[in-house]
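user: can you give me the structure for this one chain? tokens are fine.
assistant: on it. calling the predictor now.
[tool input]
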Amino acid sequence: MSEAFKVFVVDDDPFVLDVIRGILEPDCAVEIFGSVDACLPRLEVKKPDMFLLDVRMPGTDGYTFCRRIKDDHSLSHIPVTFVSSHDTIDARLRGYDAGGEDFVVKPFQPEEIRRKVHVAQQIAQSKRSLQMQAEDAEMLSSLVMASMDEYAILVQFMRKLITLDTDAEIAAGMLDLIHRYKLEGVAQTRISQRVHTLSAQGSNLPLETSVVDHVRSMGRIFEFRSRSVHNFERLTLMINNMPLNDPEFCGRLRDHLCIAVECADSRLKAVETEESSHRNQSGIREAIERIGASTSSAREAYLRDRTASAELVMQLELDFSKVFAHMEMSDKDERALTTLVGNFTENLLKLLDSSEATHQAMEDLGRRLAQLNRA
């Protein structure tokens, strides 16, 4: 049996501590602390799988404690979710800058806390996988950067871009590009009503996604603090650590990133068009198959009806012959009745023969549809 997911809750409000523990137990192993100072000794003995931190507390606040956690190699992999009564972009940015992964606003619902813990479990698994990939990428990047300059990196990205076939691949390609420039950031793609947010920390992290969703409406290209944001219709790239101490290099990077993001946005448009075309072709093929099936059914029904009609006509003539043999009719009346039946039979057969041309055309249509569906 696997060990329960361990959650450390740090809040100076005893009521909040009791509520969160009641929500998460017994599914999680919950330990509560009234302050950061009370939590620190426990960390020397036991490491949690997740932190739930109040933002404002006496002594060390949640942001400061989070930075301390992220600076500690033995703790930095543990996801942190802030609990705050202030739902502002500044509060979220401070949490993001401190290294937090998520944000909960007081008062909260029990289901929201449970969902955040579930997200933290996914983040922990994602980080373990990404850490291994990052180590491999770091080794490869070091080798590549030794023989490539910044312009060659951009050219290589442009060549690679045309081979990327999905929005997820394009987002990963953007992260690889900025990693080669020794930058950190977040890429968000938006096509076919799908939104995919990716960073080195994982995909679709709630706090990162909320920050990008906010800045994507603030202009095509803008900067704040050490961040640089490039917004296009289908792609947003946010750089977190622009080298402001080197203005010349920083300026070149802005130009390179603008070109890269614009080209990636065009590639995303092409991918979206290809997906739409594929869906339309699938719909046409399905329609052709349905029409072909209907045509085949109509042809089969026609053949059954024609055979049945011919049999009825023959039976009708036979029955009349038998009736004539037992009826005392004059030759004139018998000829008139025979002529009447014969005319009716002839007209019915002509009608069936004229329908044959229609059904031949339907059969030819069915063959042509089948050929088109195989094309």
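assistant: here you go. The first strand starts at residue 5 and ends at 10. The CA atoms of residues 169 and 274 lie 15 Å apart.
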